[in-house]
Amino acid sequence: MDDVATGEPLIVLDSVNKWFGPLHVLDDVSLSVGRGEVVVVIGPSGSGKSTLCRTINRLEPINSGTITFDGQELPAEGKALAKLRSEVGMVFQSFNLFAHKTILENVTLGPVKVRREKPAAARERGLALLDRVGIANQAGKFPAQLSGGQQQRAAIARALAMQPKAMLFDEPTSALDPEMVGEVLDVMTSLARDGMTMVVVTHEMGFARHAANRVIFMADGKLVEDAAPAEFFANPRSERAKDFLSKILTH
Amino acid sequence: MHVFTDPKNFDAYLSGFLWILKLTGASAVCALVLGVLLAAMRVSPVPVLRGFGAAWVNIFRNTPLTLVIFFCYFGLFVTLGLTLSDDLFRNIYWLGVVGLSTYTAAFVCEAVRSGINTVPTGQAEAARAIGLSFAQTLRIVVLPQAARAVIAPFGSILIALCKNATIVGTIGLAESSTIMKDLINFNGDAVIPIFLVFAGTFAAVLIPTGYFFGWLANRLAVKR
Ligand SMILES: Nc1ncnc2c1ncn2[C@@H]1O[C@H](COP(=O)(O)OP(=O)(O)O)[C@@H](O)[C@H]1O
Ligand SMILES: [Mg+2]
After folding, report:
1. A with B: how many residue pairs have Cβ under 8 Å apart?
2. Which of A117, A154, B93, B176 could form a Cys-Cys staple with B16, CB 3.0–4.6 A?
3. What is this structure's pTM?
4. Pocket test for ligand 1, best of A18, A19, A23 (most atoms within 8 A of CB)
């Protein structure tokens, strides 16, 4: 895939720094993600990938630098921040479906409570989305009754229901049994094909190769490499990336 | 049992227990509302509110209830002139409700807060990530799940509240324990039976209450 989108980028991070106490988790990170672009973030555990992802919808505030989404700097709080979050879908490693709500209610909650859609319309669209991710027949069940793969697909549907401009995925397949990884990646691949802007933290190298426009490699809070997937996997430039790839590609 | 076959005594016994039920009912409702608000303050992002909630809990959880009730009577009513009803006993009753509620709210707050802590942080994060406000996140996602974890402790708090209601007798309300003391004063030969009837009445109400809350907690437990 080399159809990198043009025009004004959707997500721009400029010299972003973040500390957790003494720990410098994001060290002068600058990154821009174009509309329709799919960026895969990889790197060793603790390198700041999740934090990077979470700063983009301000689940984590930053200490310095700026983050711009769709031409606007991220609002600090209140209604404006809630609105921004409603435009950025997020998919978590541990699904985080609302445990006391059915799958369909999980998907319609945001549209009804945040976007003020009519319940009947939200329901119809919710069912269509569940159908799109292949779990329409689970609509009336509670999250705990579904397999991990089904829950993660429901979580993707919940995020899509907000009609987001971009989607953030934080290791969406890491908590899944191996046989369920494929069904979730298939949904993500089809989203990428449909032109969704995506930032995906993952160790699924197949997905990175086939669906990503760019691969970003992070280490110790720094953005170490930023390259097209083919190039990154063929010739990683930094020692850290070479070392990391040799570790994950051997098993 | 000759004591209770006297209609006068029996009526006193009933009216004493009725006061207890009223005190418990009214205070339970007030303490619930107040306690949930305090818990919302304690988990809110606003430092002033968090401090207020924490102060409330620390003050009332660590003050003997007798002192709180005395303060309501001698402080609020006698000194500051707070009158909640023109009727003498109604006034004492309402002062009692104020004291019991403010005190019990501290325990409700802590039960709700620990209930909130049983809800994984991912639930609130997912709620914020789809654009729900802090209040919506609490009301729609966190509290309904916390509620299930809070039912069992609420049972204990309600039982304690019902027994604590007898303390309002110390500021002049003719509730159960006051009536019992009177009956014992006039019927020195029947101390044990009188005691057993009063204790038995509390047990007859509170034991099923405990079982009911236990049953409800099991039934509504969230599956994860
Ligand atoms: N809420 C937090 N408080 C303190 N330290 C944290 C917090 N979240 C993450 N960290 C630390 O920040 C570093 C980066 O974490 P994270 O972004 O989760 O890395 P990754 O997703 O790449 O594994 C880690 O060392 C982690 O322990
Ligand atoms: Mg992570």
Report:
1. 68
2. B176
3. 0.82
4. A23
